[in-house]
Amino acid sequence: MRRFLRLVFIVFTVLRFGLDELAMSGFRQRWVRALSWTVTLGRRFDQPRGVRLRLALERLGPIFVKFGQVLSTRRDLLPLDVADELAKLQDRVPPISAAQAAALVEKAFGRRIDELFASFDAEAVASASIAQVHFATMQDGREVAVKVLRPGMLAVIDDDLTLLHTLARWVERLSADGKRLRPREVVAEFDVYLHDELDLVREAANAAQLRRNMQGLNLVMVPEMLWDYCTSTVIVMERMYGIPISQTQRLREAGVDLQKLARDGVTIFFTQVFRDGYFHADMHPGNIQVSTEPATFGRYIALDFGIIGTLTEWDKEYLAQNFIAFFRRDYKRVAELHVESGWVPPATRVDALENAIRAVCEPHFDRPLKDISLGQVLMRLFQTSRRFNVEIQPQLVLLQKTLLNIEGLGRQLDPELDLWSTAKPFLERWMNQQVGWQGLVDRLKNEAPRYAQLLPELPRLLHQALQAPGQSAAESAALIALLGEQRRTNRLLQSLLFGALGFLAGVLLVRAWLHWWPA
Question: Is 121 noted as a catalytic residue in this protein?
Answer without folding.
Answer: no
